[in-house]
Write a structure and sequence with these properties.
The chain is α/β, with parallel strands linked by helices. It has two domains: about 300 residues, FAD/NAD(P)-binding domain (3-Layer(bba) Sandwich), CATH 3.50.50; about 130 residues, no CATH class. It has nine helices and 19 strands. The strands form five sheets. It has a six-stranded antiparallel beta sheet. It has a five-stranded parallel beta sheet with strand order 7-3-2-11-19, with helices on one face. The mean pLDDT is about 95.
């Protein structure tokens, strides 16, 4: 006798999702009063969102986050299998994606903008050193406290020196550097999740981006998220932040209410929004800094090296008397080779040596509104006033000497080896900072030591713009550490 079984039901979701991350409309967000509303989804915004969700899970708090851009890639572009090094460059540097902002900024011509979920963390090099203590001594934060938040940031971003460790080319060149006086040279720290697959958990997002913060946050508590939502005005009354006017892609305005607002647009976009909102402060938009950056590309003969070269990634960090760092990467242009690209066999490889130098924080270097040019949302575009000081140029000259010494060390040539160098256009390093700098004095800083705008309760900044000085280290790790600290302060203030 044949057995009769009921038919298995076809699977249909109760709440179908149209995108790879849950989104809500601005109409829904307009009906909600948020405890915190975050503007911007790059390193600072993602870190603040993740930390708030970590602190508030199970509390019923309302958190919202918006971004002016849309959905680009669901993680760092290096994690996308079809984007080898050539296609990655052609895609990311497409002017329609990575906007060449510097075309209208003659004093900051290298600047670029990326409006998308994840911001520039979708394309960054993931190099994540700490800023040396000597560069933070004048900051309004105890160094001991910064070390604590650095540890949290490094853990959250999976920062490791193991990425290039063990690669024969890295180890051979490290020894050459150590033998010629570059004692502090180490394997480069990068934000790369190298955790092996365990218990059936597959790691699909090796190179870190802010998307990882969103993934963690979604597992902690629900929050509202809208894309293509451009914040155009912050509302303040009697020294208290009340909310935002946000424009949709079809130019319809929405009024979003929030007890607290965290601005994480960028060094350009955050002061732009504040100034357009009529929020005044002597330091808002001032003290624009970036890193001076020199690059040299040399040819390295690897005859006699082990057959498997691996990846080259070396950092020579800044120190008390050395206001710059060196990075040595390759073979080729990056310390990265994609899975689906075969590394050619050759005896001569290009190796890139680059240096980032400390730049003075000066009041006259600034971002300001250009009332004669407006974007499609009616917000004035920006102008930039920027120049290097004599002291900055002295640092650049010292960087050149050290790059050439390092080149001689790793190639075995004489110390007089004149490696051709080029100076990056200001803004080309994507390390701009300082336009809403942190400090105790409202005359020389825009926000207090916890990121809250001087004179405006409930309005915070958590992006590169809060860095009081540039130092010589890549800024992303420091920005994440400070954003986590701001989120902790905000949550304690609300819960306390």
């Amino acid at each position: 006798m044949d057995s009769v079984f009921p038919a298995c039901p076809l699977p249909f979701p109760e709440t179908p999702q149209d995108t790879w991350i849950p989104l809500v409309g601005l109409e829904q967000m307009e009906r909600t009063r948020y405890d915190v509303l975050v503007v911007g989804t790059g390193a600072g915004g993602g870190a603040a969102l993740w930390r708030l969700c970590n602190q508030w899970r199970g509390t019923g708090r309302k958190v919202g986050i918006i971004d002016a851009g849309g959905l680009m890639t669901p993680g760092h572009a290096w994690n996308v299998p079809t984007l080898n090094r050539g296609r990655w460059f052609d895609y990311i540097y497409n002017p329609r994606i990575l906007r060449p902002l510097g075309l209208t900024l003659p004093e900051f011509p290298g600047a670029r903008q990326l409006f998308a979920l994840g911001g520039r963390t979708l394309t960054w090099g993931t190099v994540s050193p700490r800023m040396p203590a000597s560069d933070m001594r004048q900051w309004p934060i105890p160094l001991r406290e910064m070390q604590f938040y650095y540890k949290l940031a490094e853990q959250a971003m999976h920062v490791t020196q193991a990425y290039a460790a063990g690669s024969s080319i890295t180890q051979i060149l490290l020894e050459r550097l150590w033998n010629t006086g570059f004692d502090d040279a180490v394997e480069i720290p990068m934000a790369v999740d190298l955790t092996a697959t365990r218990y059936g958990e597959v790691r699909s997002d090796a190179f870190f981006s802010s998307i990882s913060f969103f993934a963690e946050a979604l597992n902690l508590m629900s929050f509202d998220f809208a894309v293509k939502a451009r914040a155009v005005q912050v509302h303040v009354e009697n020294g208290q932040a009340l909310g935002l006017t946000v424009m949709s892609k079809d130019l319809k305005p929405y009024a979003l209410e929030a007890k607290n607002i965290i601005l994480s647009g960028s060094t350009f976009e955050t002061p732009r929004l504040l100034l357009n909102s009529g929020i005044q402060g002597p330091a808002i938009g001032r003290y624009l800094t970036n890193h001076s950056s020199l690059t040299g590309v040399l040819t390295l003969n690897v005859e006699g090296f082990p057959e498997v070269l691996g990846t080259l990634g070396i950092l020579y960090p800044a120190s008390e008397g050395r206001p710059f760092q060196l990075q040595i990467q390759g073979p080729g242009s990056f310390a990265w080779y994609p899975q689906y690209e075969q590394k050619p066999v050759r005896e001569d490889w290009e190796v890139r040596i680059l240096s980032y130098g400390r730049v003075e924080s000066r009041f006259e270097n600034r971002v300001m509104l250009d009332k004669n040019r407006r974007d499609l949302y009616g917000v004035p575009e920006i102008q930039v006033q920027f120049s290097y000081s004599d002291k900055d140029r002295e640092v650049i000259d010292r960087m050149a000497d050290f790059i050439r010494q390092a080149a001689a060390a790793i190639t075995g040539k004489s110390s007089s080896f004149m490696l051709p160098l080029c100076l990056s256009l200001p803004g080309n390093d994507n390390h701009e900072s300082g336009t809403c700098r942190m400090g105790e004095d409202p005359l020389t800083s825009a926000v207090d030591p916890f990121g809250q705008l001087h004179g405006v309760r409930g309005l915070y900044v958590a992006d590169n713009s809060v860095l009081p000085s540039s130092g010589a280290a890549n800024p992303t790790l420091t920005t994440v550490a400070l954003a986590i600290r701001t989120a902790d302060y905000l949550s304690e203030r609300i819960d306390g």
